[in-house]
Amino acid sequence: MKKIILLLLFSVSVFSQKTTIAFDSQVLGESREITIGLPPSFEKNPNKKYPILVLLDGDYLFDPFYGTLNYGAYWDDLPETIIVGISQNKNNERYDDCNYDEANGVPSGKGAKFFEFIGAELLPYIEKKYPVAPFRIIAGHDTTAGFLNFFLYKDNPIFNAYISLSPELAPDMENRIPEQLSKLKQPIFYYQSNGDGDVKKLQTSIKQLDTNIKQVTNPLLNYKFDNFAGASHYSLVLYSIPHALYQFFDAYKPISSTEYSDKIVILQSGYVDYLTNKYEVLSKNLGLKIPIRVNDFKAIEAAILKNKAYSELDKLAEIANKNYPKSMLADYELGLMYEKTGDLKKAAKRYQTASQLEEIGDLTKNMMMEKYDDMISQTPKK
């Protein structure tokens, strides 16, 4: 019974962040149903900024995206994200919303208005109401997946990342999209997928688009295509969502054991530079500024110790002081440097100072005092 109650409480705490509103659009001349999903920690972190994910076909794409992002955020593999789902299945709105001119292959009629609604009304509303990071994602499925590509026709696309699930492409889109991607002046993440059980008439143009994009050499493009074996037009959605999100947020993930062994510990030097570069890329490409994780500090520390590059602990201490100025981390790293280089007196002093500061990670006041006593006991008496 207790387990059931706890489960219910957990469900309420998570899904209470999901709100559906009627959005009165002047551009569309009608009210549209919008579902907004806020991260579980939203109320606890009023100053934190979040990426935005705009979901076309929000009626059925909202929950799988919401679940994947919350699960990834729980393990700190994915950043917490504000999700904005646009309902489009009422009276077949999705087809009118995605209307385009067959002759020139661009949005027309209701499609042109819907395009403007997203960029000129919905996004400004969300960005004024909530603290957002400068990283916007848009996702859709078949008809809406094709439509979202129109945002790439602009010289300065308003979205940074695109998730196109089995897209139904507009005329000549398989050529126009690669042409635009080749001219990028800002980093763009692009993901598309289909399955070998997908709708046959869609597969030819999807694969042609994939072939053409793979010929683009612009370094600002981060592209991935998945063709899932055994996946249908609908099941491919569940395969695709984590693939797309983990592609976009690869730089966000903490240092893993694989990254440590394959990329860090094998370096001859520059361990701290690797750490700072990792978070600079996160800020530059994803617009996310977060403190360097304590576990990432420990990974770099372990690489430094393994390779006996003790002088880099000084630089690591500088970074620690910037990220956690009230904690004992910086003084601990300096104490470790002096200990490893044989200056036990200075090491003892640093460990003593650390013992008076805030604990962090697995570093405790008792641990610092034990390190201090150990240094004193090894220091030669005059």
From TrEMBL:
What name does this protein carry?
Answer: Alpha/beta superfamily hydrolase
Q: Which Gene3D superfamilies match?
A: alpha/beta hydrolase, Tetratricopeptide repeat domain
So which residues are the signal peptide here? 1-18
Q: Which organism is it from?
A: Flavobacterium glaciei
According to the record, where are the TPR repeats?
328-361
Q: What keywords tag this UniProt record? A: Signal, TPR repeat
Check the record and name the InterPro entries matching this protein: AB_hydrolase_fold, Esterase-like, Mycobacterial_A85_antigen, TPR-like_helical_dom_sf, TPR_rpt
Q: Which Pfam families match?
A: Esterase (PF00756)
The record's listing under PANTHER family reads:
ENTEROCHELIN ESTERASE-RELATED (PTHR48098), FERRI-BACILLIBACTIN ESTERASE BESA (PTHR48098:SF6)
